Amino acid sequence: MPRADRIAFIAPRFAEGGTVGGAETLLKNLADHAAAAGRQVTFLTTCAQSHFSWENTLPPGRRQIGRLDVHFFPVDPDRDVGEFLRVQAQIDRGVPVSARDEVLWIQNSVNSRALCDYLKAHGGEFDRILAGPYLFGVTYHAARVWPDKTLLVPCLHDEVFAYLGIMHGMFGSVAGCLFNSAPERELARRLYAFPDAKSSVVGMGLDPFEADPAAFARRHKLAQPYVMYAGRREAGKGTPLLCDYLHAFRERTGRDLKLVCTGSGPIEAPPALQEHILDLGFVSEQEKREAMAGAVAFVHPSVNESFGIVLLEAWLAGTPGLVHARSAVLRWQCAQSNGGLWFRHYPDFEEALLRLLDDPPLRHALGAAGRAYVRQNYAWPAVEQRLFAALDA
Amino acid sequence: MSDPMFDIKAPGVDAEKLVAEIRAATEQKLAAGVYADARIARAERLNLAHLRDADEFLNFYLKCLRDAVFVDISDFPIRERRRFFGPALVALKKVIWGLLKFYTYRLWSQQNQVNGLLVTAVEGVDQKYAAKLQELERRIQTLENQLAAASKAGKGT
Question: Chain B contact for A194, CB < 8 A?
């Protein structure tokens, strides 16, 4: 195929302001870099900002944001949230649902007919259409308009929704996929027999930074060692498990180890642990980086990740990772980089954390290996090379 | 499309080897009973869904449950943090607890009964399915052997 010069990116929300999900940030960053490389990029998205209400809070229409030509379309107002939640609850519980219910579920997900109509009318003007993440009606329906030129950026997880028949159909029809990691590609191969010839592992680039490891503790008068977590605080991300483990760790070992958290959502922790948690909420990038740099380890207890941007950021800060072994992606990142350890259960967690606490040279060696890995594989030039190779294939 | 252009295995420390060492250490400690602790069973409640394929850990978890199942409501010391009237307040609390103990006893003994039955049931289900799986594996092995023998005989003719 000749060079893909005209590219449309599609995401349910536009990452402006930093409070959207990782998948939307990924798509926006890829779009930015494609535009910076001289490609003509159009970004199609909805007027919604909240991933709870999906209310149309932004005005519809076209705006130039940085290098991107962004088109905002309203979310369909007639979605039946009750039906959506009914089927979703069934899927979530592992109850088999009929093909009709699967369709009902995706039709009442977050959709935009206006966006699809635009794509039907103007899709011929694009060489490539990139859409993601996989779990939204917007992505599903957009991928059906021009499947032969659509590349999914699925951010696929090993979760019940990935096993739905409609997902088989979507992955089977598109021209290709841009995965964030090799385990994600392996999952698509296992679930949908997705051919390697149609897939690429691209990921997202990160700019290197320097952060003073002592600055955060000094500013917050924190004399004790701490572990860090950054991101959404919810069961799906494993934060209640981290709190339970840390509470047991403190009780069993007698070590005064604190937990520093950034991000959104309530922290479900045993009452006795509450006073040992420093919850910063949303902080500046510099504050987050300094907090990461001073931590004994960055703990990522989530088992459903397609990339793990925060883990890569922690490595750039020179801090080792400690991740759940059930997350194929995070474990792969740790094994590839030699930048972190992984635990299956509490005994592994306790043993690994004790090693990291008691062996600063080991901690520094792991952090340095992680940093070298990110700088080599996730520097923007490397990511751009992979992205453009996939676009022009 | 393209192959992943990733550098495999950064030089320096070996994370896989470290994790293997950590696992060896935890296995030893598990066998020595270092982790037979109700606090771990509590901490592990949210991780159970991820341990479905870890047979050994499930056995360990059941052992922890068995250790923790019978609650003893008399096992806590009555203390008083206030300096003044401390001994008097402790004595008062002990009297109140002595009076209430009788009423809570029934609730407590029923809870212990339920806990004990639940652990027995879980262990029973685990043993039953383990035995069934063993039997199925044995049958598959026999059938595979028969199939291999039949195919060998077929080739010979």
Answer: no
